Amino acid sequence: MTNISGDWTGVYSYPRRLAPTAFDAELRDTNGLLSGLITELGDSARSRGHVLQSTVIGQVSGQSVRFTKIYDDPVRSHAVFYEGEVIEDGNAIEGQWAIGPNWSGPFRMQKRSASEMIAEEVGEEVPAT
Q: What is the pTM for the complete model shown?
């Protein structure tokens, strides 16, 4: 079983002609129990420009990942269900998100390397080792 703990960056897309939304995730995988936080910039008329945070709770079983994202913000207070597969030797997750039966779309997450995180903190590019 792949442990998916760590920092991730990702994007989810809408089913219509809306622009994709980027997000950052900090996940903790404890023996298949998944928890964490997701941060993204709001993209609706009510949330545009606001940083939105959400709590993640779910599970990892083999290569399958299922979690619920619950927004911690009164502007967005709904839950989003994610289901995907761990790919690329545990460095990516691809799947679908859904809100109810009629609103869903694809998502992809990429695990961030230690050198990427250091570069972001110091504001410069650090060569990968």
A: 0.83
